[in-house]
Specification:
Elements (H helix, E strand, L loop, with lengths): L15 H25 L1 H6 L10 H16 L10 H10 L4 H18 L4 H4 L5 H7 L2 E6 L5 E6 L5 H7 L2 H27 L6 E6 L10 H17 L4 E7 L3 H10 L5 H4 L2 E3 L5 H7 L21 H4 L7 H21 L2 H36 L8 H23 L9 H4 L8 H9 L3 H78 L3
Parallel strand pairs: 2-3, 3-4, 4-5
Antiparallel strand pairs: 1-2
Length: 520
């Protein structure tokens, strides 16, 4: 196109800037949605369609993503377990040590396959459940003030001999696993829907009234050890807190023995209370959700009592329908969501190609713009080709920034030249020439894009500094925790030695007393 072909009445579109801002805003919104869905895991992004709070911080999310990539690379992540919160539970159980967590995760998958945990709710029938509950009263009842299910056991009423007559230890452990699976499949999701935030932990109340030294026989010890191993190895970090109530002097002596079977992190969540526990429970649980025999106002008279009622959101018809629809949506979305990462990579490749094509076009158009400028008089507007070139540069800068935000997790895989700010063919001399020829607006827009580049670089630099500071603080905190654990271990060892010495001293005193009786 020659200068004579330019229409003197041609004017820039006054709405182009507003349209570009609107378009850029919508793209940023879509990019954030894509990024969030990728970060939260396929289950959360594809399934949860109602408002739900999430308390995952940036450090934990980064660790979960790294762990997820490690599992995917080794084919250790079945789609049904591809959930950020589940990954985090295992990471927390191993203090975010990736190798130890990977081993724990691998062992869990193998156990589930060998034990048949995925189909245990359909395959295992526990006909003796009524008799078992008679000799081992237990069950869920209501939720705490945070929406977590409350699990109750009356250990003081357990008859271990009759329990083992009613069932076997293997069958009881299998029943325990089945109920844990039911909790994850039905009860935790129902509580999450009711509380509008993720619930994957419970509050436990153990009533130990009447439990003493004679209560922990060989069968009881073996059962505790087996249940603890199953829970700790395959369902970690599911206990939020536990209240042991009606703890007498006999139980407190027994508790020192029981603690040796439990993980130290688990024991830190346990509160041992006497018979004045009601006010403490009511701080955590509403009176309407707490059984009357624990100081609440609930009786569940129409359900045969609180211990048999299984009261909770999982019995609400509407909530169960929503949980089922969520589960169905998750099943149908697994195939498509499984390709999410591949689509992200394909999009990056497409953008690289687009960038290359835009650079080529800009390079080809620049000589044309220079020739046209020599022919156009000072009174005429800049030719369409030059304006198109400038607009493409402006649009390209905006798109490049948008893609940098959308694919922030994949920046490390991009070529170095795409990560390095560059100056495109239209330099400052060309900008000055455009200003002199009446195109001040185009020059301002180009300068604005360059300023935006500088601002984004500064923002990225400050973000990296903040992340580095957070990592240093986290490392310091972990070091402190490790030091405290070491101190606790040494203190425990010292107490054990003192106890042994005390026992030896008592035995020596008893021996001297007995020998003294016969010294006459």
């Amino acid at each position: 196109m020659s200068g004579a072909d330019v229409d003197p009445n041609l004017k820039p579109d006054g709405n182009s800037e507003d349209e570009r801002k609107t378009k850029l805003g919508s793209f940023k919104k879509a990019a954030n949605m894509i990024t969030n869905s990728f970060n939260k895991g396929r289950r959360n992004s594809k399934v949860m369609s109602f408002p739900m709070e999430d308390d995952i911080d940036a450090e934990e999310l980064k660790a979960a993503q790294e762990f997820r990539q490690k599992l995917l690379s080794e084919e250790l992540l079945p789609s049904k377990h591809d959930d950020t919160h589940m990954l985090l539970r295992f990471l927390r159980a191993r203090k975010f040590d990736l190798e130890k967590t990977k081993q724990m995760w691998s062992d869990m998958l193998q156990w589930r396959q060998e034990y048949g945990a995925d189909t245990i709710m359909e395959d295992f029938e526990f006909k003796e459940v009524d008799e078992v509950l008679k000799y081992y009263p237990q069950g869920h009842h209501g939720v705490d003030k945070d929406g977590r299910p409350v699990y109750i056991e009356k250990l003081g009423q357990v008859d271990s001999n009759k329990l083992m007559q009613a069932t076997t230890m293997d069958r009881y452990v299998r029943y325990h696993v089945r109920e844990f699976e039911r909790t994850f499949i039905c009860k935790f999701p129902a509580c999450s829907v009711a509380a509008k935030k993720l619930i994957d932990q419970s509050t436990t109340i153990l009533d130990v009234q009447g439990v003493g030294l004679t209560s922990l026989n060989k069968s009881a010890r073996e059962l505790i050890q087996r249940l603890q191993k199953v829970d700790g190895d395959n369902y970690p970090e599911t206990l939020n807190r536990m209240f042991i109530i009606n703890a007498g002097s006999g139980f407190r002596l027994l508790w020192n023995t029981v603690k040796s079977f439990l993980d130290p992190k688990t024991t830190s969540k346990i509160n041992v209370l006497g018979n004045q526990y009601q006010s403490k429970l009511l701080e955590i649980i509403e009176a309407t959700e707490l059984p009357e025999f624990f100081g609440g106002s609930c009786t569940c008279a129409d359900k045969g009592g609180c211990m048999l009622s299984d009261k909770g959101p999982w019995n609400d018809t509407e909530i169960i329908k929503m949980v089922q629809s969520i589960r169905e949506a998750k099943c149908t979305s697994n195939t498509s969501s499984g390709d999410l990462e591949e689509k992200q990579e394909e999009k990056i490749l497409e953008e690289e190609k687009k960038i290359s094509e835009d650079e080529t076009k800009v390079s080809e158009e620049e000589p044309k713009v220079s020739k046209e400028e020599t022919k156009v008089s000072e009174e005429k507007l800049i030719p369409e080709d030059a304006m198109a070139c400038t607009n493409r540069m402006d649009s390209f800068c905006s798109d490049a920034f948008l893609e940098a935000e959308t694919h922030s997790d994949h920046l490390s895989s991009l070529p170095e030249e795409l990560l390095t700010p560059r100056m495109y063919p239209m330099g400052y001399d060309d900008v000055d020439s455009m200003v002199c020829k009446g195109t001040e607006r185009e020059a301002e827009r180009l300068n604005a894009a360059l300023n935006r580049l500088s601002a984004l670089e500064q923002e990225l630099s400050s973000t990296k500094q903040v992340e580095t500071q957070k990592e240093e603080k986290l490392k310091a905190a972990l070091d402190r925790v490790n030091a405290l654990e070491q101190e606790l271990t040494e203190a425990k060892k010292a107490l054990e030695e003192a106890r042994h010495k005390q026992e030896e001293l008592l035995a020596s005193v008893d021996k001297e007393k007995k020998s003294g009786l016969f010294c006459w």
